[in-house]
Amino acid sequence: MQSVVVTALLFATAEGMMANVPAKTAFSSNLRADADVATAKRGATERSLLQPGTPLLAIKQKRAVASSGGFGGMGAAKKPAKKGAKKSKPAKSAAKAPKARSALAQELEREGVVRIDNVLSKETAELMRNFVDSERTTAMEDIAAGKYDQASRFADLVLLDKRCDLLLPLRGPCIAALHELIGEGSTLGPLLTEIVSDDGMLQEIACLISEPGSQQQPLHPDTPYSTVPSLYACFIALQDVTIEMGPTVYLPGTHTAECHAEFYGGDLTKGRDVTGLRTPPIPEDFLQSRKVTLGLLRAGDCAIYNQQVLHCGSANESKDSVRRQFYISMRNAAVKVKARASIRPSFRNKLSLGEIREELKALDGKLSREGGVFDELDAMDAEVDTAVRDRHQAGSLYRSLEGGPVDIM
């Protein structure tokens, strides 16, 4: 039954979907309005080409397995020594034994996306949901009053109508959520250490909000292809996500150079198109051939993905259900990447994963402490806004609100 519903709601024909694309938008900029119409049409066409989606499922965590070649490889089994045999001394030049990789890291390397259930308690998810709604109202009032610039409280998005990307503070429920997400005893914290190290930098802390009537975005990677992944995002549902609410669509396994080249019409360099518009035609055969998984998460569940994976936000076709998706992303400090950050300006490039986990340990379950790192950064954020507007939007199909070129994430 679910497969039929998924097929009917997510993958309708392009003609039917395009009929629902509005001829005009509420944006004051004619250029942005024209770009949004083209963007929505592309999203509708891509939607019609995709296979019926299946829910992204959590894997059973298995004991870490030694890998001889990075993620996913299996080390050769040792043969038992014969009785009476002398133990040979290891050669001085012998390489160190490969470090064990967790089952989650191996799955993330293979598929590019993995689900982890219950990273937040139901109570904390509800606390965050209420906080996000309140913070959104406060941010809009502060912007209207001239207290803060729009870019210091909201990030730009593809198809902004009935969507927003709210930048979150480092206080209150957000700290409670970080305790559960990546603090001591968490599953996500050690996984992030494993894939980006404790030197990895906090790139984003925000909440994506999708209201009824928001349209499906075109597929895109958040970052261009690189041999070593530069960014990982953790999407956490703040309420149960149904198919009608427009779950995130993932194309597992598309985080490779080959898939990026096919997606961009055989030319990988177009993944960094500086015009702000992606010119290659829609790769129909490629899209039709790819497996599709859907972020049908329950409140408190997480989908963590390599940001090179093709994905998009689907259409919220519910009657009255708002989808709120709290997220953080971590950047591998050893990889150079020019990427837009959905994070308040005062927090940008200020916190490594190791520093966050150390501060959480020092807080010992509390939300603040005198002289604490989070408190100091949040105090800086409350000062006079000097932010410069970030002209980026995710993906390479789109223009900024000012109409100028944008750099893909």
Kindly describe this structure.
- The two termini are 37 Å apart.
- The longest helix is centred in the N-terminal third of the chain and has 23 residues, at 122-144.
- The chain has one domain: q2cbj1_9rhob like domain (Jelly Rolls, Sandwich).
- A hairpin with a 7-residue loop joins strand 5 and strand 6.
- It is of the alpha+beta class and 409 residues long.
- Helix content is 29%, strand content 14%.
Summarize the structure.
This protein is α+β, with helices and mostly antiparallel strands and 409 residues long. It has helices at residues 2-10, 14-18, 30-49, 103-111, 122-144, 173-182, 188-196, 257-263, 284-289, 353-363, 373-381; strands at residues 54-55, 65-66, 100-101, 113-116, 154-155, 163-167, 201-210, 231-237, 248-251, 293-294, 302-306, 310-313, 323-331. Helix 5 (122-144) crosses helix 6 (173-182).
